[in-house]
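yo

u said u wanted the structure for the complex thing, so here. seqs first:
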Amino acid sequence: MQSLSRWPSLAIGALHLRHPILQGGMGVGISMAGLASAVAREGGAGTIATAGIGFGERDLASNFLEANRRSLRRTIREARSRGDGVLGVNIMAALTNFDDLARTAIEEGIDFIASGAGLPLNLPALRPTGTRTALIPIVSSARAAAILTRRWRERFDCLPDALVVEGPLAGGHLGFRPEDLANPALSLDRLLADVRAHLEPLEQRYGQRVPVIAAGGIYTGGDIRRFLELGADGVQMATRFVTTEECDASPAFKQAYLDAREEDGVIIRSPVGLPGRALRNAFTEAVGRGQRVPFRCAYHCIRTCDVENSPYCIARVLLNAREGNFRRGFAFAGANAWRATEIVPVHALFETLAREYAESAESAPA
Ligand SMILES: Cc1cc2nc3c(=O)[nH]c(=O)nc-3n(C[C@H](O)[C@H](O)[C@H](O)COP(=O)(O)O)c2cc1C
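structre next:
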């Protein structure tokens, strides 16, 4: 029998994770080689975010595809050079260079591709036969899961290798209408049950288990236990990984998390047409009042971005925040960001989560 004091490991296709924890991809530049490789080394799944990954390349404006491709290759190789473990990339389905990034990551032998912010309906077409990269869509409703699995079955005769179910407490862009964010019928608990129920008959037909990974607001080892007990096979966590030494954001970005109070969590209307969960500051207030930050766009990076009418460039604003420039930026953050009290090494974070997990068994009612 599984010991209650230790969490189970997690298998996704041929990948074996010692800990059932995926680190969520965080663009722009928040989860790069540093954080992703540290998580992978610990036995979780490390994720490099590809949104805006070409930001440091000199020829980004004139050579958008190649600059992003080059930076992605370099980042994957850098992460690999820092140690072993399960390493993936997060590619938002709404990126205009989605296909190019997916092909490049697969060529580099990446272990998995996680993809949300839109449905990656054609992702299996980009994976050549015989390649083992696991494909992990991120969905925020059972309806989205149904649309995606139908398409993948009809076109490619396959199921996802795992599904991340992301609820309304997550950081970054959210797959919900703003008015639905507080609807209890759309809580992560409910979404998880709905998506599991949708998958069960498909799993039987294909004789394949599709692990379901819960995401959004999972912060402690106790939270991990709760979602595993609710039927998740694993969890995806992002916010808690920001306040680690290895996180690739500037110290000022991490400090914004340490300084945040609960009431600083806000929902912004992102120019890409989705709500986003962020930390309030003077900049979010100003753009919320309708202030515009004119910009020139050399490469339309997100399909759903209405460049002509966007009040600001979301990629630029997130990059500014990453560098610590909050006069012209804001930090995306999950609903639990305010709980951070210190910056710790990733190794210590895994130890804390494991201890919290064990303690939550002891404190649970018999
Ligand atoms: C700073 C930040 C940036 C994020 N960027 C992305 C991204 O580029 N692509 C994506 O699919 N999800 C993104 N997310 C969502 C996370 O990957 C993750 O699923 C979610 O935040 C989980 O909730 P948690 O932060 O409460 O743990 C981001 C989240 C944060 C906090």
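DSSP finds eleven helices and 13 strands in the chain. Residues 203 and 209 are 6 Å apart (CA to CA).
cya
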